[in-house]
Amino acid sequence: MTIPTRAAVVESGGAPFTLCDVALDEPGPHEAVVRMVATGLCHTDLGVASGALPFPLPGVLGHEGAGVVETVGSAVTGVAPGDHVVLSFTSCGECRNCRGGHPAYCATWLPLNLIGGRRADGSGTISRDGTDLGGHFFGQSSFAERALVDERSLVKVDADVPLASIAPLGCGVQTGVGAVWNVLKPVTGSTVVVLGAGAVGLSAVMAAALTPATTVVAVDRVGERLALAKELGATHTVNAAEADLGDALAVITGGQGADGVVETTGNVGVLRQGVDALAARGTLVVVGAPPFGTEVALDVNGLLGGKRVVGLTLGDAETQTFIPALVRLVKEGRLPLHRLISTYPFTDIDQAVRDMGAGKAIKPVLTF
Description:
- It is built from eleven helices and 18 strands.
- The protein is α/β, with parallel strands linked by helices.
């Protein structure tokens, strides 16, 4: 028996989201059906919807879901019907990186999450009029009133915390926070620079403000976002539309350079400036993703002072411990995620897309 629900379907690359009736497959042994309460809208969703990535369309996207478990498969042990859950990426659980606590670098991460559109065994999870749609997006495809979710995408969370306030934890927020906590790991007196003040960048700013770093610099071209960054913990801001980034960072750091840089823009010119602004033994974390195949030129001799450039996926987070910790910080007011969120009814998904593209909304969250 299939499970009827309503979903936002992208028919082809560049097409708008269309609400229509679909059917979920029955949950397998390691799957659950989740009634969605909220789901974040992320730039990755928009990139796939535009046709920039080879995800099978027509399909159902969405990968920052939050909801309530309705039914579970026979082998699911971590959650039960009625549990509140945040949905994140999935992974195989068996490869070296999964077993080592780094599931974001799972050997099968790409097909399981981003480009496969199906379960690992090749079977579909969502259909329309008897024809399979692309689904299993990040193990969830949460742009729907109900989602068939892989067990390793499920994270049980505190039921006292409103789900709409924590839906973005599954991707964008844990990416920005993880860049700081799991990679840069600032020590006392460190300087952290965040390039780009969108949802990921502002999450990194909030994370840096909870570390021993004493200088936290936010860089953007939009004054309103820089003002918000200052309220969220940035000690300094740089408007890249008005000042030379290298010169500004040299003044702020007293010519020493930055100990850590988080690059969220996906602009290779900005990435190069960030590498050049590093102090000796400094680290730049690459978070922003330009189109596949994009290359950047670096001064090789400039790297010999111990500089490191590190790529990052989803904060290198182990979700079962990381996300509940973030939920607690949200609950206690120490991670003021609500400052980033704008809510929209699920039926207004295209308005949310437009507002995100126009920069009017930092983190749209769709509610059901």
